[in-house]
Structures are given as structure tokens and as C-alpha cells.
Amino acid sequence: MSTTEKIQRLDGGRLLQWGTRIFAAAGMPEAEAATAADLLVRTSLRGFDVHGVSRIPSYAGMLLTDEMNPRPDHGGELRDGTLFYRGDRGLGQAVGVAAMRQAVEIARSVPIVPCVLGGCGHLAALGMYTLIAAEAGMLAIICQSTAPYMALPGWRAKAIGNNPLAFATPVADGPPLVFDMAASIVARGNVALAVREGTDIPLGWAIGPDGEPTTDAKAGMAGSVLPVGGYKGLGLAMMVQCLVGSLQGNSVQIDDKPGSNARMSAFILVVNPALASTGRYPDDVSEWLGVYLAAGG
Q1: What is the pLDDT of residues 80-97, one digit of tens each?
Q2: What pLDDT is attached to residue 2?
Q3: Rounded (5°) CA angle 79-81-86
Q4: Mean pLDDT estimate for the chain
Q5: 63 Cβ partners below 8 Å, 6+ apart?
Q6: Which residue in 20, 138, 222, 257 could disulfide with 37, CB within 3.0 to 4.6 Å?
Q7: How would you label 62-96 residue by residue, b for 16+ Cβ within 10 Å and e otherwise?
Q8: Which residue, 128, 155, 291, 175, is CA-closest to 234?
């Protein structure tokens, strides 16, 4: 069967209803179930299915087995200019959206708001959270530490997470600019997808448990994904580990054991351009973005 023959087009509204019902059946409050489902559906609509609705069954399984808390007592407290947001082991898509929205509200009267988010589930596509801020007129950055999935060629153990990061900014004369990347050359979800579909992965994506390059997806899952740009990607992952894992003091607690998916952390920075700039921010973004786009023909 060709890839084209496998494609099914589904209505986004129906997917949202389906995801909401699943999360609610797994014990989440209706409003938070809808928030989580909406973010995942929107992720898929933006073309990132491996971090979109395909995640709903696995997240629901974690909620049903109490690996994640379906009804967390989550919330934030502003102390010393920093928003400390407790996730209480909640689903990342519900807790993460709430933390970002609270940081945005604080930033309406404060130029820069750092937020330390602890004890939450996997956030998936980080750009979706910064998009929320950008649509509210804010510049935002977010990063999350993950379980160790990444290493350099020759290494026989997973060394550090692929620790994704993202930013977004409003653009005066167009849609927000959103950038989202993992520190690895490919998101591990793409390797997992290749395992499910029984296909090989490109050489350069991963190494096997022996530390050697592999095109076998199962060996890649058992081994490690490779950092983008070699040592540069590893350095980005280290920066995220400092901002996220070490600020929370939980770097060594993130592993592949049951429950670890609900002990993850994130770091958010929201900047209000109206308060933190010379006043030319929107025009300046449009100017350099215009130069960039013109250079591409």
C-alpha cells in the first residue's frame, strides 16, 4: 500500500470531540479535557501528527493507570518576580496551557515573566504554547527536559534528553512566527513512527545500543537519537537541562521508569514587547523578516 493510499482526511471538529471524550472518560474535568484535545488537534492541523492526535491514546493510558494525575491541583504562585507553577503530575497539554496563560496575564503589567513549571507530563510540540503567547501579543520562549534519549556516535548509553525548545513572536502584518525544535537531529517520535510502520530510518538519525549508526528503527529506539549539528545540539540540550532540570533539581529523576512521564519540568519566558522594548519591536520584526523572506526569492 502506498503512502497516499494510507492517508485519511478527518474533520478537525470531530477529532476535537473525540479527543475531549477520551480524556474526560480517563477522568479529566471536561474543560481541561477540551483544552488538551484542542492543543493536540491544532498540532496535527499544523502538520505535526507525531506530536498531535496520535499521542491521545498513550496519554489516556497514562491517565487511566494513574501514571499521570487526571485531576491535578495545579496552579502558579508569583515569587521574587518568577511564576512558580506546580503541575501536580497533570497532563502536560492542560497544565502547560494554564501555565502559559497565567504567565501571559502577568506580562500584561510586567515586562518579562519567567515561569518555572514542575511536575507535569510531556508537553509534545512546544511551539503550540508559544503560539498562545504570540497570539496575545507576547514574545515567548519555552523549553522542556526529557528522559535521556540522545548521545554522540560511539556512546553505548543514553546521555541526555533531546530537550526541545521553541519561541514565537507576533508579527505586525502577518501570522505569528513560530520556531520549534528538538536538540536531536530528529524527534524521537519519528523513530517510534518508523517502528510502528515497519520502515527503516535514514542513516544519521540514530545509533544502536552498540553506539554504531543504524537504519533499523527498533535499534534506534533501543539506542539513542543523535544531536543536531553534533556537539552544538548537545550544547543546546545542556542549556535546556540547566534551565529546566537543574532549576527544578530533578535532572537525575527523569528516566524511563513508570511515573517519570509525570515528573517532567519546563521553563517559560514571556516578554511583553510593549513594556520591554523601545517601542519599535513590531516594526523591527517586520523589517528583518521582510529582508529574510526577500532573500529567499
Answers
A1: 999 999 999 999 999 999
A2: 44
A3: 45
A4: 92
A5: 23, 26, 27, 28, 69, 70, 91
A6: 20
A7: bbeeebbbbebebebeeeeeebbbbbbbbbbbbbb
A8: 155
**β-strands 213-214, 224-225: how paired?**
unpaired
Angle, CA 121 vertex, CA 116 and CA 123 arms, to 5°:
75
Per-residue pLDDT tens over the stretch 176-190: 999 999 999 998 888
Q: Show Cβ contacts of residue 12 under 8 Å, excluding neighbours closer than 6 positions.
A: 41, 45
Q: What DSSP element (H or E) covers 234? A: helix 231-240
- Measured in whole angstroms, the distance separating CA 275 from the mean position of its chain's CA atoms is 27
Residue pLDDT, tens place only, 234-265: 999 999 999 998 998 877 655 555 555 678 89
pLDDT tier at 48, thresholds 50, 70, 90? confident
DSSP-based three-state secondary structure for 20: helix
Cβ neighbors of 71 (< 8 A, separation 6 or more) are 27, 28, 29
**Max CA separation in the chain (angstroms):** 58
79 neighbors 116 (Cβ within 8 angstroms) = no
The answer to whether the CB of 227 falls within 8 A of the CB of 237 is yes
Residue of 79, 58, 82 whose CA lies nearest to 262 = 58
The strand pair at 224-225 and 206-207 is best described as antiparallel
pLDDT, average across residues 102-110: 98
Is the Cα dihedral 273, 279, 280, 286 positive or negative? Answer: positive
Angle between the N-to-C axes of helices 92-107 and 127-135, in degrees from 0 to 180, rounded to the nearest 10: 30
Which span out of 4-13, 254-263, 267-276 was modeled with the highest average pLDDT?
A: 267-276
Residues 6+ apart with CB under 8 A from 245: 145, 251, 254, 265
